[in-house]
């Protein structure tokens, strides 16, 4: 039996958790191979290599893994919070390539093996605040998005970054609710900020499909829909890019979407939130508690008008 150490593994060698957790589907995929408990255990223990801790991490208690992976927004797999965990097994995450286009000196297509070599992985325990007024605390795994941006050398015309998620009707038969593919965007300084995480895992393991496998971003001072999942295209542009929820309803979803207890959603208050696993609601904090790091990005900007 070939035993490989983590440094020899490619991204495509790592078995996603959803595969080995569903034993029947996993066994069927091996189609006649000799399967033993030892082999199953070997697959089940493939996790990401030891990680560097981050000074950006919160010390708040983590949301239980089960809650974080079964209560999700991912409309490509259904609109109910429990739909993604039931339906996202149809997403094929390997091979996976991201196309990088637009105002860069080095446009390219980059696969997950190359992405994983760009920078050391870190574990960052970030708060995630969703626009529906619920929140979680999740140990994400990744590295600053800026590490990828620097390597493609944006030109002076790159003022914003536009992101697109994969959309494939065959893999996503439950997709509904918005025009596809899902689109999001950031201002260049937001994308370059060290808090903006290019994310490949959570809880010490690769991302589950329902949480945005194989690669997403996490922007912790913004509402959760800004942290786009399953990215397969990044384009550097000179004008504010289109974003799916703003395209659908600009009155309710602005481009910036910074967590702001003073700007209510038209249908509910943003001054309070319910942490998943807790009974009572708590006050929402400006920029989701990351104001000391990011408030300077918005000096002079009216955050009520530019919601």
Structural features, described:
It is globular and about 45 Å long. The longest helix is centred in the N-terminal third of the chain and has 8 residues, at about 25-30. The strands form 2 sheets. Strands 1, 4, 5, 8, 9, 10, 12 and 13 form an 8-stranded mixed β-sheet that branches. A hairpin with a 4-residue loop joins strand 4 and strand 5. It has one domain (about 50-300): Oxidoreductase, molybdopterin-binding domain (Sulfite Oxidase, Chain A, domain 2). The chain is built from 10 helices and 13 strands. It has helices at about 15-20, 25-30, 35-45, 65-70, 85, 110-115, 145-150, 190, 245-250, 290-295; strands spanning about 50-55, 95-100, 110, 120-130, 135-145, 160-165, 185, 195-200, 205, 215-220, 230-235, 270-275, 280-285. The chain has about 300 residues and is of the alpha+beta class. The chain starts with 16 loop residues before the first helix and ends in a 13-residue tail after the last helix.
Short recap of the structure:
19% of the residues lie in helices and 21% in strands. It is built from 10 helices and 13 strands. It has helices at 17-21, 23-30, 37-44, 65-70, 83-87, 112-115, 145-152, 188-192, 244-248, 291-294, and strands spanning 52-53, 97-102, 108-111, 122-129, 134-144, 160-165, 183-187, 197-202, 205-206, 216-218, 231-237, 272-275, 282-283.
- Return the CATH topology: Sulfite Oxidase, Chain A, domain 2
Give the % helix: 10-25%
Distance between the termini: 56 Å
What share of residues are in beta strands? 15-25%
